Amino acid sequence: MSQLSPTTTDYREILATKIANRTALVSVIGLGYVGLPLAVEFAKAGFNVVALDLDKRKIDDINAGRSYIKDVEADDVADMVKAGRLRATSDYGALLEADTISICVPTPLRKTKDPDISFIVSATESIAANFRVGQLIVLESTSYPGTTDEIILPRLSTEGYLVGKDFFLAFSPERVDPGNPRYQTANIPKVIGGVTPACGELATALYSTIVDRVIPVSSPATAEMVKLLENTFRAVNIGMANELAIMCAKLGIDVWEVIEAASTKPFGFMPFFPGPGLGGHCIPVDPLYLSWKLKALKGQARFIELADSINSSMPSYVVERVAAALNHHSKSVKG
Prior knowledge:
single chain, alpha/beta, eight-stranded mixed β-sheet, 10% strand
């Protein structure tokens, strides 16, 4: 990180102008199911985009005009690369030239079900090592409330840089639903929480170039909590549906018939369905970030922990049901 020198330069106005006239160099760190669609959308909006990842195969695919994400058309990648508006690299020195940086790295759980934010920390260190004043940094990776303020902000402020003046920082949770043909980047509303009003305004201006509707909230922690509410809502209701399935089995009732009939109510009900546990990148993981944060504050996320207990027990329950069904037909599980 370069040393701070006194200046009266209005970096906010400079960056706002660059965003408005599409001369800002946009960068995206992490080229998975969130990062690649984001990079391509920014390129299609007229920005020059540098996409960063440590996976050489992804870098080679993008630069060759290939897509490895189902929701991203290979033709779009090829067109943007050919037009010179999209390039991929594993050299984080490219961040020195970037005006905006969107962080889209994974946030898994450790075996102990504690958050693993090592990818966010690593990305932050890469940004700090290639930092220059006037940049906008937006974290999109799902994490516990306080991550932006507690992890990224202190690291970028270590040499006296002022957030909201010398650099700009916000959190905007990804809302990708892989494989959904109806909802994709442009028509999924984007929540944004800036550390300062200037941070929020610039992040809003940036994402408004590719998203139909942007919803500013008061802080990064609020935006982080919004994402966890969305995924906790699903995890808890799936847990309820799973427990309902167990109840119905004991009572000799068809759980599918119950849910189908309940779904005819035009208000106050939304169907969720039982299954052999939880799948996907988010629902089994994200609520436990909130549970972990509450434990650190000597609190308890009881609904989350109960839902996790039920959902985690479903694989063995389903195996037991399958074994019983096979046994009923005089068949063994083996083979």
